[in-house]
Amino acid sequence: MSKDKRWGVSMTDDLFANRVRSEVPSRLNGMFPQMDFPDAIKFTAGSPAEDLFPRKEMAQAFADAVATEGNYTFQYHTVTGPQSLREKLAKRATEKMQIENIDADNVMLTAGGQQGIDLVAKMLLNRGDSMVVEAPTYVGALSSFDMYEPKYYAVQLQSDGMDLDQLETTLKAHPEIKFLYTVSDFHNPGGVTLSVEKRQRLVELANRYNFIILEDSPYRDLRYVGKSLPTIKHFDTEGRVIFLSSFSKILMPTLRTGWLVASKRIVKQLLKLKEAADLEVPNLTASAINQYLEKNDLDAHIDQLNKEYAKRQWAMAKGIRNYLPKEVKATCPDGGFFTWVTVPDYIDTTELLYDHATPEEHIAYVPSKNFYAYKECTNGMRLNFTGLTPVQIDEGMERLGRVLKEAIARNQSSISVEN
Amino acid sequence: MSKDKRWGVSMTDDLFANRVRSEVPSRLNGMFPQMDFPDAIKFTAGSPAEDLFPRKEMAQAFADAVATEGNYTFQYHTVTGPQSLREKLAKRATEKMQIENIDADNVMLTAGGQQGIDLVAKMLLNRGDSMVVEAPTYVGALSSFDMYEPKYYAVQLQSDGMDLDQLETTLKAHPEIKFLYTVSDFHNPGGVTLSVEKRQRLVELANRYNFIILEDSPYRDLRYVGKSLPTIKHFDTEGRVIFLSSFSKILMPTLRTGWLVASKRIVKQLLKLKEAADLEVPNLTASAINQYLEKNDLDAHIDQLNKEYAKRQWAMAKGIRNYLPKEVKATCPDGGFFTWVTVPDYIDTTELLYDHATPEEHIAYVPSKNFYAYKECTNGMRLNFTGLTPVQIDEGMERLGRVLKEAIARNQSSISVEN
Asked: In B91-211, at which residue ranges do the beta strands (DSSP E only) sit?
C-alpha cells in the first residue's frame, strides 16, 4: 500500500494500483494480428455479419423514440432504465429461457454483456477470492475478473460442457470458492453446449458448495441445429444463478445493451454498482430498443440470421472435413459464432500464426493461449464463421489446411533428422 | 477472504465482496425524497433544463450518422471510439481549456463523466490507499471511490476553492496520499470556483508530494459572469492532472458521453480498464455527436443555455436576498448548476427536510450530509437552479425562507424554555 517514490521514465507509474501495474499486457493484446493483404481472410473477430443488421428498422426505432418520448428520454432518470423494456425482457426470459416467476425488477440493463460480467465480479470478489472459470473461457471475462485480482481454478471443457467431476473435486479441495463463470450455449471459444444433465447438476453443486453462477449466454438465440435447452437459471432453486444475455449478437453491437436476470437482492446490489460505475442506462438507446421490439418481430429477424449463419457454419464444417489433416480435431457447434480446433501438441498455434499462417497464407485465427486463465494451452485455435461468406470460409479453410499439413510435415522431418 | 457459511434470510449475501456488504446504504439513497404534491418545487436534482435540449439537431445527427456511416458504425470496433471526434475534442481542449500539446490520443471517451471518475479510481486505488476529497464534494464521486475502499482525507472548501494550507498540512502528515479529486469550476455542490493562484499551487503540491489530480469540470462551459480561468491541467508539468468533461450538461444526459484529457501513458491504462468494464464506446452515439459538432455551432448553443441559466441563477440570488433569514449564508456561483446554503449549526438540514420542508412547504433540497465522505456536516444544503423557471425559483425560495425562519424561531423558543 505504501507509495513507492521511484522516479523513472514516467513519474506517475508508481501511483498505479496493483491491478494495472502487472507486467502482463492486456489479455486482448496480440489477439488480432495486423494484416493488410488484399486477399486476407480473418477468422479472428467475434463479429456478427454487418449486412444482416436491421439498419432501417433500428434507425426508425431511434426516430420513434425521439418523436414519441421527446425530451423525457434525453434527461437524467434512474439507473434502472425503462420499466416497459424490462417488462418485455422478463416476458422473453420466461418464454425463451424458461426462467419462471420473475418480473421487470428481476431484469437489469447493462452496457453490453461485458458490463454484466464486470459488475458481477465487482459484487463478489475481494482481492484473492477464489473462483472457477472454464478452460478455455471467454477472454473478455478474464480481463474483467483480473481487475479484482481473484485466484482462478480452471475446469476443463468437454464436448458436453465443463467437466463436473473435476469441478466437484476442486470444490471439495477449495470450499472457499464463491463464484463460477460459464458460457452455457455455443461456448466462446469452445463451440460446445452444456448438457441438460450437467445444468441440473451444476445448480446442485452450487447449492451444496455455496457459490454463485454467472451463466453467460449471448449466443443462445443463434441455434442452427436441434432445440434450445432450458437455461441453468431455469433449475435455480436458491437465487444463485445470474443469467446474462445481450442485444449485440442479435441486433447490433453498437447498442451496447446487455441484460441480466437475477434475484431481486442481487439486482439491487448490481444497480448500486452500476450507479457508481456509469450512473445510468442510456435512455435514448433503451427507448429505441423498446420501440424496435414493439414494431418489429425480433424472432423473425433471428430466424433470418439463423438461416444465413447455418450456411456459414456448414461451410466451415465442410472445410474442416475437406482440408484439415486427420491429426486435427474440431468441435461442430449447433449454433453461435465459433469452432474450436485442436492441433497436435507439438504445434504452438501462436508461433504458427505469426510465422506461417499470416505471412504465407494471409489468414488469421485466435491462438488458444489467449483463452486460458494461466495461458497453459498452446495447441488450439478459435475460428469465427459468422463474419465471413461461405466462399471466403472455404478458401480460408483450404489455406489453413496447407499451413497445418506443412507444420506436421516439418515436425516429422525434424524427427527423422534427430533419428 | 474466507467464505462465511451462514444461512440467513438470503443464502447468497455471505458471498458478497466487502465493497457491497457495508451496512451503509447507497450514498444516493434518500437524496431525493418522494414528493408527489401538485405544487411541489424541487431544488434537488442536478438536471439541465429539458426545454433547452437541442432535440431536433441531435435527432438529425443520429439520422446522419446512420446515413453516412451505415453498417460500419453499428459493428464492434475498438475501445477508443472515433478518431475524428477525439480530434475535435483535443482541439476544443486547447482552445477552450488551454490544454496545449495534445492530440487525439490524449483524449478518451467515457460513459458519462461518471465512468471517467470510476476508471481513474480503479486505476489508482488499492484497498486502503489514501486520497483527498473536498468537503463537501460530488456525491457520485464518493460512491465510485467507495467501491475501491480508500482512506479519505477531506479538505475544506473555501470561497476560492479548497483550502490549500490545510491540504499541505495533510500531505506532510500523510505522504502516502496518491490521489486528489476536485471539481474546479462552479463546484458541485459548493458553487465556488478554484482561483488561478490555487490552481497553480495545487500542481506544485502534486509535483512535490507525488500524487495525481482528477480535475472534474462538467460545468465549465456554463459561465454566467466573468471570464473562464485556465484549467488546472493547463499548469500540469509532469502529466499528473487528468481533466474530465462531459456532454451531459451542454447537450443531453442521455448521450452518456464524457471525455477526459490525460498523458498517453494514463490514457493507455484507462482504456485497458474501460475494455474490461464495458468493452467499447457506443459508436452510433459517438458518431452522432461527431455529426452534431460538424453541422452545428456548439458554442452558439452554449451561449443560449448561458443566457437562460443566468436568469435562473439571478432569480435564486434574488430569492436568497429577499426571503432567507440573515442567519443564513449562501454562495453566489458565477456559473454551473448549484448554490450552497449554510444554516446555523443547530439546524440539521436532513431532519428539516423530512419534518418540515417537504410535508409543510412541499419543497425539497439535498441535505449537506450527503456530500461529505464522513457525513460530518449537517447544517448545509445544495440548491439546484437550472431545472426550474425563475417564477418557480422565486416561489420556492419564499417557501424555503419560511421553513428556515420557523426553524430559527423554534430554536430561540426552546432556548427561552430552557432558560
From this structure: 107-111, 130-135, 151-158, 161-162, 179-183
Helix ranges restricted to H, B353-389: 358-361
Each residue's pLDDT tens digit, B14-33: 899 988 876 555 676 667 77
Mean pLDDT of chain A: 93
B2 touches chain A (CB under 8 A): yes
> Do residue B276 and residue A62 have CB atoms under 8 angstroms apart?
no
Between CA A286 and CA A294 the distance in angstroms is 12
Spatial distance between the Cα atoms of B256 and B244, rounded to a whole number of angstroms? 14
Beta bridge partners of A387: none
**How many domains does the structure of chain A reveal?**
2
CATH code at B266? Answer: 3.40.640.10
Pick from B123, B278, B284 the residue to mutate for testing the A interface (most A CBs within 10 Å): B278
CA distance A394 to A343: 19
Axis crossing angle, helix B139-146 with helix B112-124, rounded to the nearest 10: 40
**Distant-in-sequence, close-in-space partners of B167: CB < 8 Å, separation ≥ 6:** B132, B155, B180, B202, B205
Q: In chain A, which residues have their Cβ closer than 8 Å to the Cβ of B276? A: 114, 118, 140, 143-144, 146-147
Whether B336 and B195 map to the same domain: the answer is no
Minimal C-alpha gap between A124 and chain B (Å): 5
* Contact check, Cβ <8 Å, A144/B277: yes
Q: Do B123 and A66 touch (CB under 8 A)?
A: no
* Mean pLDDT of all residues in A129-137: 98
E strands, B222-376, in order: 241-246, 257-261, 329-330, 338-342, 363-364, 366-367
Q: Give domain status of residue B402, yes or no.
A: yes
Residue of B nearest to A139 (CA): B276
Q: Residues with Cβ < 8 Å from A58, sequence gap 6 or more?
A: A251, A252, A255, A288, A292, B66, B74
B263 by Cβ neighbours in 10 Å (0-12 / 13-18 / 19+) ranks as: buried
Nearest CA in chain A to B213: A12
Q: Do B178 and A3 touch (CB under 8 A)?
A: yes
Statement to judge: residues B378 and B249 lie in one domain: no
CA closest to A127 among chain B residues: B1
pLDDT tens track for B296-355: 999 999 999 999 999 999 999 999 999 999 999 999 999 999 999 999 999 999 999 999
CATH code, B404: 3.90.1150.10
Whether A283 contacts A73, CB under 8 Å: yes
Domain of A336, in residue numbers: 20-53+300-418
| Residue B32 pLDDT | 72
Q: Cell numbers at residue A415, please?
A: 524427427
Is B256–A144 a contact, with Cβ atoms under 8 angstroms apart? no
With a threshold of 0.90, does the pTM exceed it? yes
In a 13 Å sphere around the CA of A334, the CA atoms on its Cβ side amount to: 16
Beta strands A380-384 and A338-342 are antiparallel
Residue A223: pLDDT band with limits 50, 70, 90: very high
A281-320 residues touching B, CB cutoff 8 A: 282-285
C-alpha cell recorded at residue B263: 498523458
Q: How distant is the Cα of B70 from the closest Cα of chain A, in angstroms?
A: 8
Burial class (CB in 10 A: 0-12, 13-18, 19+), A347: buried
A222-258 exposure pattern, b = at least 16 Cβ within 10 A, e = fewer: bbbeeeebebbbbbbeebbbbbbbbbbbbbbbbbbbb
The CA distance from A3 to A201, in Å, is: 47
Give the Cα separation of A383 and A376 in Å (integer): 19
The pLDDT of residue B5: 44
Residue A319 within a domain:
yes
